[in-house]
Amino acid sequence: MGSRNDKAFARSDALYGERAGEAFASARVAVCGAGAVGSFALEALARLGVGEFLVCDFDSVEESNINRQIVALRSTIGRKKAEVARERILDINPGAKVEIFSKFIDGANCADILKWRPDVLVDAIDSADSKCALLLSCCRAGIPAVSSMGAARRLNPEKIRTADLFDTRVCPLAARVRRELRKSGIERGIMCVFSEENPLPFWEDGIEKTKTMGSSPVVTGIFGLVLAGLAADRILKNFHS
Fold this sequence. Notes:
The chain is an alpha/beta fold. It is 39% helix and 16% strand. The strands form two sheets. The protein has a seven-stranded mixed beta sheet with strand order 3-2-1-4-5-7-6, with helices on both faces.
């Protein structure tokens, strides 16, 4: 269990309660994806005083990440996102313990992540196939997971909602994940953050003949912070059960 500086987290304890502070300090949280959504989730969970993290991300910071990712700065371009995230968490809470899983997540290695036995897993990965494999593995292992659906190509933060995955609406990514999980008999039990806003079109560069998936720091940031809230709720539920 990571140590806890009571002064650093006093404002959280005043809101959540002293016993909640114990819950956060003793919690083990795996965050899969340290990019647009995941970096904001990590930030909030670190500032709540979560004691142990497993940060899962294989990617490096690119200049195009700067508009929406906390780990992306001019000074971090080219560095591994998971390593930057670890440094940031430890700068917030030096008493935390932070491990890194730096492989692309797929069906072959989800079990390696779950061997860490997190109290809750935060899914903020982009790949639909990886997301389905990870959530299915969590369900089979009995590990609580909270998940982010599609945040890119949305502009309106007032359309962001939370619900069980099987109660979501509009989001094409959520529909695909539901379909895949139903094939394995999963029908309930994964809380997620999603948007009721229809995805906007890709931006098309007529000169380069390329399509770019636009993304707002406002929307992705709120997604990540709400996802952290869902994880915090699960931590407190586990602690008091």
